[in-house]
Amino acid sequence: RRLAAIVFTDIAGFTELTSKNEDDALELVEYQRNILRPIVEKYQGTWLKEMGDGLLLIFGTAISAVHCCIEIQKISKRVEGLNLRISIHVGEVLETENDVYGDDVNIASRIEKYSPIGGIAISESVQPSLQRTPEYETVFIGNPKLKGVSRDIKVFAIISHNLPKPASKH
After folding, report:
1. Measured distance CA(76)–CA(12) in Å, rounded
2. Distances (CA, A) of 47 to 6, 11, 30, 68
């Protein structure tokens, strides 16, 4: 077990793209892999696995995860169709050779849907790391009931660094 910053990504609209053109969808996933993997490595992240169009990444610190995700969103905006939702949560993980497990992994995966397209949703466990640095601005999204999660989790969105604001609170 160890403490980690857990990141999930998902391509918004990917199911629709797949139903229209499977070759283009596969090409987009391959392109995502080629352009994002070096960014993850730059911030000492671990590319754990791909789940269809989504990624599971882990980092040693919340700040390295945030920096990486901001750069990922910046690069993704230049690629047609690569409209990512990203979530970050810090918590304890049970690590195996190529995967991580635990309640905190579930939390990270559940808050991803609250991210605006092109944005980054973070849990309250990431918020203190950002509050100490004035370059980051966040907005409270809400305290949604997360499926399979027994505790209350506050969700925020990073709105500095040209990231989009969430449409509404949950």
Report:
1. 12
2. 11, 16, 14, 12
- Asked if 20 contacts 79 with a C-beta cutoff of 8 angstroms, the reply is no
Closest CA to 109 of 44, 155, 74: 155
Measured CA to CA, the distance from residue 64 to residue 69 in angstroms comes to 9
Q: Mind listing the pLDDT tens digit for each residue in 20-56?
A: 999 999 999 999 999 999 999 999 999 999 999 999 9
Residue 16 CB partners (closer than 8 Å, separation 6+): none
Please report which helix (H) or strand (E) contains residue 109, including its range. Answer: helix 103-111
Does this model's pTM top 0.90? yes
Q: Is-contact 121 111, C-beta < 8 A? A: yes
- The alpha carbon of residue 54 and the mean position of all alpha carbons in its chain are separated, in whole angstroms, by 9
Q: Which two tokens stand for residue 37?
A: 């993997």
Mean pLDDT of the residues in the chain:
94
* Interior angle at CA 136, CA 88 and CA 115, nearest 5: 35
Instruction: Please give the average per-residue pLDDT across 145-149, as a whole number.
Output: 91
23 secondary structure, DSSP code? H
